[in-house]
Amino acid sequence: MTERIVIENCAVATVDADDTEYAGGHVVVAANRIESVGAGPAPAGLEGVVRRVDGTGHLLTPGLVNTHHHFYQWLTRGLAQNSNLFNWLVELYPTWSRIDEQMVYAAAQGSLAMMVRGGVTTAMDHHYVFPKDSGDLLGAEIRAAAEIGVRFSPTRGSMDRGKSDGGLPPDFAVETTEAALIATEEAIDTHHDASFDSMLRIGVAPCSPFSVTTDLMREAAALARRKGVRLHTHGSETVEEEKFCHELFGMGPTDYFESTGWLGDDVWMAHCIHMNDADIAVFARTRTGVAHCPSSNARLAAGIARVPDMLAAGIPVGLGVDGTASNESGELHTELRNALLINRLRGGEAALTVRQALRLGTYGGAEVLGRQSEIGSIEAGKLADLALWKVDGLGHASIADPVAAIVLGAAAPLSLLLINGRAVVEDSHLTTVDEDAIARSTRAEAQRLAKFAGLTD
Q: How far apart are CA 432 and CA 57, in angstroms?
């Protein structure tokens, strides 16, 4: 008999195509799928109900979807506090080049635990630093994600343009073009699962125009399309990047990406801050997605992305934490609020609504990752990735609109998080791993990395 979980008596924001909401509604989960959603209590006479959740005082939303991150940076939080992107990278690359498998495993545990505890059901990571003889770094992340129980979309990143070739990374921190492509294909062949309810999908992700050769960009795009996986990189993040592309390639970032095969509905870019009208039109025409990272963009003073204009043009846009060395909180649910506030600074009071912000963090992220038919909204037949937020406590009880409560208010407590129909968070705590043990492990590995890098005695 199919086991069912019933959540009822809660407000429900489905984030479906019509933004359907219920002031008091229910969701029935059967195994790992959403069986039904609607107003009022769940249907009577359901069989196989193993759990009933009284959602009084709560808002039920789709689980959050993170579209850009660098887990390994968990170990270098709080450094280069007053640097722009290029100076920040130059300062931290030498330290990052000393990471190993044990460090990356601990960093992935910390990064994932923070996000999942805050409502993330699908996490993405862009790992591109692979020091020689450092172990199975991608495998370490995958192992950490499986232990926590989060749906995971890691990308096998790469860098092959070192400082001697005009790039930013030191030469000892990059791979050869051939080695990067071979390792990327092996990662896809070993780990990628294309099934509907997949918990693990691999993407192809050369790091950025200033750390990757044109040959690697072109060959990586061809590899991804031959294997049927998605493509990801950084794009149009800073004015320095714009200048770099013009000096090295004789064109801006968007034209460069188009010339290397890096635009299309199977591609998404991180940041996309410095885009003009023509750039936005090209992204809209090609359905290239964007990972908007408002906190990191502000931390590095990179600028404010034109998210309202992107949405109006029809570009798929999701939210990203970005690496925790440029967003030390490591949380995505706070990005709902920051996306709304920062975009209003640029575009005025109507630039983004609270419901648009929620959509960025749920369905928008699913669309960017190519999984909108499976996750991102509460609809019958979709996977049971659900977040139940408490909105009747001190921080939210006087806000009548529950969506406004979780977007504009303080970070809302998470009473329950289901991933693939499994309870992974209960009462704001992870059920699958020991949070205190992860904190101790990440602290120890951060100290070990700092010692290796000569930052401490």
A: 26
CA distance 130 to 175: 7
Identify the bridge partners of residue 58 per DSSP, sorted by sequence position: 390
Residue 356 and residue 358: Cα distance in Å, rounded? 5
pLDDT, the chain, mean: 96
pTM over 0.85, yes/no: yes
Residue identified by tokens 């699962």 is 193
Strand partners of residue 61: 387
Beta bridge partners of 151: 122
Strand ranges in 368-443 using DSSP code E only, listed in sequence order: 386-390, 414-419, 422-426, 429-430
Q: What are the Cα distances from residue 223, in Å, to 187, 253, 266, 439?
A: 12, 21, 13, 38
Is the CB of residue 265 less than 8 Å from the CB of residue 288? yes
Report the amino acid identity of residue 312.
A
Local structure of 356: helix, strand or coil: helix
Each residue's pLDDT tens digit, 421-446: 999 999 999 999 999 999 999 999 99
The C-alpha R_g of the chain, in whole angstroms, comes to 21
* Tokens 């009933």 belong to residue: 52
- Kindly list the distances between the CA atom of residue 107 and the CA atoms of 88, 244, 438, in Å, as whole numbers in the listed order: 19, 31, 9
Q: Cα–Cα distance between 352 and 408 in angstroms, integer? A: 12
